[in-house]
Amino acid sequence: MIHLKRQKNGLITIKGKMGNNKLSTDIARYIWSIIAKEPLLPMSWGVDLETVVCSEDALEFHVQGFLHTGNVRIVYIEGADIFQVLLYDEEGNLLKQIDDVYLDNLAETIDLNVENDKVENYNAKVMNFLIGA
């Protein structure tokens, strides 16, 4: 099993292996490196680092965004070099499947479905969250 861990310097690293399958570690690092190019973006989704796991071809984690609360699973389709993004509710039911996501719009695709600063009253919602209203 693969887990993300926040270091004292603020960097997030991937620890662990899934059996002897190094591919899992490589895929997890590859996916995380894409979505964390702008480190504040995954933080804005409310990623729970304790829930991050990796399978042979995917990275999955729990989010608490304004548009979606539940799990996000990012599957890497190696031969086509594209991704599939799956959104699950808290009970594990598939809510949305987004196919043919390219590397350069992976983080944006997740953001548009989890957080999206274009949602109505976004700034007010953020302020309410920050002040605990």
* Rg, Cα atoms, Å: 15 Å
Task: Give the tally of β-strands.
Answer: 7
Q: What are the segments in which pLDDT stays under 50 over at least 5 consecutive residues?
A: 16-23
* End-to-end gap: 37 Å
Number of domains: 1
Sheet with most strands: strand arrangement:
3-4-5-6-7
Number of helices: 4
Helix-strand pattern: EEHHEEEEEHH
Helix content: 25-40%
Q: What's the average pLDDT?
A: 81
Largest sheet: 5 strands, antiparallel
| Percentage of residues in DSSP E strands | 25-35%
The backbone outline, from C-alpha atoms, is: globular
| Helix vs. strand class | alpha+beta
Task: Explain what you see.
The protein is of the alpha+beta class and 133 residues long. The chain has one domain. The chain has helices at residues 22-35, 40-44, 106-114, 122-131, and strands spanning 3-6, 12-15, 48-54, 58-64, 69-77, 82-88, 94-101. The strands form 2 sheets. The chain has a 5-stranded antiparallel beta sheet with strand order 3-4-5-6-7. It is globular, with a radius of gyration of 15 Å. It starts with a strand and ends with a helix.
